[in-house]
User: Fold these one by one.
Assistant:
Number 1:
Amino acid sequence: MSVTILSAMRHEVFGKTFARFIETKARAKIVGFCSTPAEVEPLYNLLKPDILLIDAKLGGIYSFDIMRAIISNDKTARIIGITAYFQEDTLQTLRQIGAKGYLLRNDDMKIMEKMIHEVMEGRTLFAESLYC
């Protein structure tokens, strides 16, 4: 059975291309895609994905409150935040919220695949050592 992922990316074209890449390389199934803050929580609740892969900034605002809301309503939520470049404050906020991982858009696919599968195994993986 493949891992199901809801992809929430601010750039729709990038998000859909990224989603296809993940489906091919990480043996995962993208079950939904959204690009605005208002879409994320309702789509998450409808689809119940194994993982929410979410851009740390959607629609010009940080998506941390969305992540907090999802985690407060679903204690089993597995969220992986994604950004264009490493930011220490984003890393700390994701940890504080209870996210399970942090990726960069240009990470090697092996890192992304490992993170998806580690998170599915119940582990938390912040690969900040790769970015420092």
Note: Strands lie at 3-8, 28-34, 51-55, 57-58, 61-62, 79-83, 101-104, 125-126.
Number 2:
Amino acid sequence: MATEIPVAVEEVRGRVSVRLPGGFKGVGLLLDGAPAPAGEARLTYTLPRVDGGVAHARLNAEALGMKFTLVVDGRSYPVGVELPGWLIVFVGMPLLLLFIGGALGGLCGGIGAAVNQGLVQRDWPVAWKALACLGVAAVSGGAWLALVSAFHIVVGR
């Protein structure tokens, strides 16, 4: 469910795209569809330049990992979908289960938040994204309730 967004970087030889996080895949830089060679630090990459040299690239995360900026040799390229702040709150809403339901709530909420993060990167209207996030939060809560009920039946308490 991860989304790939092409980025037009003229000084780099090959097709550059950014894989946005979604589901259980993290962010990454792709060169011609394959993972780009990693640099020395996390989220840094070395890319072949058109002139035969090496370009140094870095991915910077913004808005809790919902929007990224690709910086290639000091030049910035915004990547990702511009999200309203309130929608970012909707993405993390399933994580409230951590405070209500302990470890099982954290598990269900973490899965729900990961799914939401992938959903908001899709090319949908903002209203659909909000409804999808609320639906995932409801399903996460239902899954937590089902797990807790099953646990009580099995344990007998």
Note: The longest helix spans residues 126-155.
Number 3:
Amino acid sequence: MRLYYFTAARYAIDDIENSHIKISQISCLNDPNEWLPNVKLVKRAQNMEIDIPVEYVRYRFERTIFTERGIVSMTRRWNNLPMWGLYAEHCRGTVLEIEVDESEVQSVRYCDERVELNKSSMSDFDRLDNNDFDKIVNVKASGWSFEDEMRMILPLHHELCECKDGMFFLPMQIGNSTMDGKARLRLVGVICGPLMAPQDIASLRHVLHDRHPASGVQIEHAVFKGNEFSLERIAR
């Protein structure tokens, strides 16, 4: 399936030059509420339920699952104007058009309330089972629904991931360029923002043609569409 990754021009150039894409760490996501469930400590023998403060849940998770996994966030639509403004330098950045197997990504659910998890003891915080994990990792507050997000969830210390200057990256195949078989994402197109600087466009073209001359990756430009609040793609 085709998905779209919004980013600044300088990061897109780096991604293409190094054939990788950044993995976002959970503690650095825009919404600090992500991956934070409403946890209840349930003592059935005493017929008792205790709500655990979300601040304490964060404290525990920052030392466990937040350090273990990351995500690559993409979206279904390239012409999402709020996304251009928020993630692509106010239309001065780029969108990477990426091909990925549908089984590799998961759709985000947008909700008004946190996911509820019931735990029988405090030590259970450090032992989330797969069912609990699946409940919380693809849920965001309903106010973020404009993102229409699809995400890939990855162990940060997986053999496919590379760490550089404290940041994590996933290998990405650049078009038809050959790789060693590790890539789970393939770049098939680049869409330059309607306000992208000419020097950034030139740098992007240079690195694509210099480093990956046989990639077949197409560079297109997003332009504002007439009198509508929308965008269209054109080749230049």
Note: The mean pLDDT is 89.
Number 4:
Amino acid sequence: MHSLSVPELEGIINGIRKFEGAYIQKFYELGNNAFRIKVRKEGNANIFFEIGKCIFQTKYIKEGTHTQFEQAARKRIVNSAIKGISLLENDRIVVFDLQGKENVKLIIELFGNGNLIIADSSMHILIAYKAGMLSGREIRKGNAYCTPAKGEHAKNAVSELAQLYNLPPLYIEEAMQRCGIGKGANALANDELKRLEAKAKEVSDEIKSGKGYVYLDKGIAVECSSVELAKYKGMEKREFASLGEALDFAYSTFPEEKKESKAEKGLEASIEKQRAYASQCGKEIKEYNEVGNAIFSNIYIISQIIDTMRANKRMTAEELQKLFPQVKIKGIDLKNKKVRIEIG
């Protein structure tokens, strides 16, 4: 699914601003760059976000993974009050202003190689989900937080329209499709540009309407959008009153990765040991069966050797070998009354 655009985020942020004044009860790391914040304000609610992708209120509860980052973040933000929720510099960066034992900012980056950062009130980094050089910035504890530098983009009519209406490629492609312009078109005539501008504005207005659509393939969401998309025509579609509700439903369709508990891991290890033991026992049983069959097949000559040794307790191995050439006499232990033989 596409990363949310600024206009889409503005609508979602307006929806979750109702949690301003709420208190953070819990913070969970869910794995795969996803997180959940449990808040309390006239009842409990949950906010889900995936860095680099999206944020929305959720009713589907997934448990945390109990990581070091989760524990470190909890120490900083749990029991803090949410004083404000906003977009930073009109970009895809959501900032929660928190007030607690210390005033901090929870910074959620929702662009490509995004990050999750907790900074102090002066925007110096306290902890970061990802550290190091990211998007042209050095993310380190103590460094001042800064947004990525804006890259230079090729100037053409399509890119200028995308910038004018703040639309991602998914929606520019939709505008082009609505006015019959091919996706790979480079140069556009004046009348095509006018039609494309009209459709881009149409798409932008539909985003502002706040609706949400989910497109499904075999029950699993493949895209979630603020407008109806021609590219998915004929695919199963669900419509929702808001994009946040649509996103919440879309994420609920994804198969959940099975997480093994410590008990399950211990049980699996025990089962593997039992399998290895059973395999070893199977080999030993086979060997014992072969020995038993050999003894049974040669029981007559073995009985004769035993009778001979009982009758002559001082017989040597060489003497016994001459009497029974059909077997190999390996040795005689007179003290312990044992004869070792090899049966061919």
Note: The mean pLDDT is 86.
